[in-house]
Amino acid sequence: MKRHLRLIIGLVISLIFLYLAMRGINWGEAWTSFREADYIYLVPALLLLIAVNWTRAYRWRLLMGNEPSLGLSKVFRFVNIGYFFNNIFPAKLGEVVRTYLAGRVISGGIGQALSSLLIERLLDVLTLVVLLVILLLFIPLPAWASQAGLLFGAATVGGTIVLLVLARFGDRSVEWLWRFVGRIPVIGHPKLKEALRNLLAGFGVLTQNKLLPGILLSSALVWLGYALFNYMLMAAFHMTHLSFGAAALVLCATGFSMVLPSSPGAMGVFEWAAVQALAVFSVAESPAFAYAVGLHLFTNIALIVMGLVGLLREGVSYATIRERALATTAPDAASAEVAPTADGSNR
Questions:
Q1: What ranges in the chain are assigned the alpha helix state H?
Q2: Among 34, 128, 198, 320, which has the minimal tally of Cβ within 10 Å of its Cβ?
Q3: Sign of CA dihedral 314, 320, 322, 324
Q4: What confidence tens digit (pLDDT) does each residue in 140-151 have?
Q5: What is the pTM of this model?
Q6: Which residues 6+ apart lie within 8 Å of 87 measured at CB?
Q7: pLDDT tens digits for range 159-185
């Protein structure tokens, strides 16, 4: 029942934002943007997306403690399979699937896999915050956007510091904290307590000097790659008069928009966020919407195809993985869903 309700709420939100993104569109101009686009740029964009997912796989492997039983190519397939499920099913099912796939192989099981994914999401949010702060130094954003970005950034950094302190004391800190938090309705739910335990468990890998440089560098490369990917699609739609900062701002806007519940693939929310970001650079709504739709469709289709290839290479069907993943990780599924999610287009 809850899943159906979440799906309905997500669809309603997607339709609202899709309407907001489309209401001022001149469809003739939008179609002209598609007709005159230079699709040859999709080839290097696809190669870059594959490279970004390899980098994501490399970072995730480090976050799992560089498990010798888990090769990079297998982790790469797990990443692609996860994005496949994220883009065709609601409620971030791909995160549950990735937890199951990795948990059945690594020594720490489901718990270790889940904590690594929670840390991965936190790193994504922090990287986006850093990128946004850098952009604020060079791009004159509306006052409300600048203030909201700085406030969110300060809250994220402050929250991370608190988590690091809590991680230093392990389960004792969770039990102490829940003496107070546990009394608060909704926030004190046992599932959130378990999510916090998993998150703190994953912080241990960040204290390993041999792994931390690779984790930080790969995080930066992942999001730099996404920004470059966005710019390649801008080249396809003849928007190279815009700076690289425009592509980065689209990345931040669409990335942070992913925290909203929406339909599978985040249709509507993504397009609205991208159009708002391009409005900062005085891009008209129609070409901006055409670019947003082209970027979103190409990304999602590419990720779905890569996920299908991953399923074939693993020798399993999506129905089998979906059934076993939900059965195996059902107690932890809520923990995965409350993890910060900021990577645009379900990436």
A1: 2-22, 27-35, 42-63, 72-88, 93-103, 109-136, 143-169, 171-181, 190-202, 212-236, 244-257, 269-279, 285-314, 318-329, 333-337
A2: 320
A3: negative
A4: 887 777 777 778
A5: 0.85
A6: 94, 264, 265, 300, 303, 304, 307, 346
A7: 878 877 777 777 788 888 887 777 787
